[in-house]
Amino acid sequence: MTQQVPSTEPELAGVRNFRDVGGLPAADGRRVRHGVLFRSGHLAHATEDDAAFLASLGLHTIFDFRNAADQKLEGPDVALPGVRNVNLPLSDPADGAEFWQMVRDGDLGQLRQILADGKGAARMTASYRTIVKERTAEHSRVLHALAADSVPALMHCAAGKDRAGISIAVTLLAVGVERDAIVADYLESNAKHRRYKVRRSGSAESAYTPEVMELLSPLFDARAEYLQAAFDSIEETWGGTDTYLEQGLSLTPAHRDRLRERLLD
Q: Where is the Tyrosine specific protein phosphatases domain (predicted)?
């Protein structure tokens, strides 16, 4: 039996952007069940109390969408007893390694070169399109696992915003959640207490100036246009959500029915 967790959001000291996706409305009048689908940032810095709370959720599977570079930077997730951990990198470990090194260590001139004049936002938009279009095998594996037995589930990446955000969105599309509700949940990652803590080398005076933070903001914001780019990629590549799910992710009507049984009230 799936444990029903309280609707109030827990205060986790070492895990950013945690939340239960329960309550979102589906087109058929049902809602996502509380206590079956969670999202967060990485679990590498979870405290003992955080780990005890996460263990109390009765999780079956944690899907970690970080790549090797992410895991090297932050560390592995804390181990939770009896929980299956599945690592499905949604970006190539070598892709953008120098870029992210620049984000952490670059001076103002270097940041201007790679992020100013809309380049940061354009990079994010392109990555959302790519993750939807080229990572169909990974998203298919997640949805088939959820349909089979892998709930309750927690999906996370580093910040719990982009890769986890897209994967949560794909899952919610598969069970018929309204797009407006999907976008609203995605934008919750902008709350101050949820946001990823940017690590920059150097003193606070030079590393976190207002201009630096403005240049970095496209990378660490959840912006509706990013998720819309993912939706647009579905429309442009497959012609619609149903075809994307059927042809791109190999989800049959029976699979989708099973997902609804698992995830919806």
A: 126-206
Maximum C-alpha span of the chain: 57
pTM given for the model: 0.91
Interatomic CA distance for residues 63 and 35, integer angstroms: 16
Which H/E stretch holds residue 37? strand 37-40
Which domains does the chain show, CATH number per domain? Answer: 19-263 (3.90.190.10)
DSSP type of residue 63: E
Residue type, 46: A
Residue-wise pLDDT for 180-208, tens only, equals 999 999 999 988 777 666 666 666 566 67
**From start to end of 143-194, where are the E strands?**
153-156
- What's the chain's length in residues? 265
Cβ–Cβ under 8 Å, residues 76 and 66: no
